Amino acid sequence: HGFSWLTLPWQPCNASCDSGEGVQLREVWCVQDNQDMVNESKCELLTKPVTARSCVQDCPVQCEVSPWSEWSPCPPLNCQPNGTRAAATTQSRYRVVVEGSDCGPLEESRECFTPSEPCPHHVWGTGDWSQCQLAHDVRCGH
């Protein structure tokens, strides 16, 4: 009868994400030609395949995002004729996911101003009167 070593697939790497390094194991059996398991002594003249090897665990990136964008510009003030603001407006900024998931908020908003802030009051400014000038087709006294 012929004998040989039968190797099973490697088990998953037992490394943790903290260390990154671990050991991977597999089973190796001595078998006859008909694949029946026999005592390992029957295969002692054959080099036994390794049953353990070091391994490195690639741990997933939890989350990597781009830097925040610049804040969007605030829109012009929205004042009503009675001098009050119609509503508060907001500005936003964004970021995008580079890798991973569960990255938290990808957009932030903030008010551009407080709604209680008064609208600016506009008044006309006046200067001194200029000297009277006659139209070119008008004569004095008429």
TrEMBL record:
Subcellular location: Secreted
InterPro entries for the chain: TSP1_rpt, TSP1_rpt_sf
Domain of life (superkingdom): Eukaryota
Alphabetized UniProt keyword annotations: Repeat, Secreted, Signal
PROSITE patterns the UniProt entry points to: TSP1
SMART domains listed in its UniProt record: TSP1
Parts of the chain that traverse the membrane: none
Protein name as annotated: Spondin-like TSP1 domain-containing protein
Source organism (scientific name): Graphocephala atropunctata
SUPFAM superfamilies registered for this protein in UniProt: TSP-1 type 1 repeat
GO CC terms: extracellular region
Listed Pfam families: TSP1_ADAMTS (PF19030)
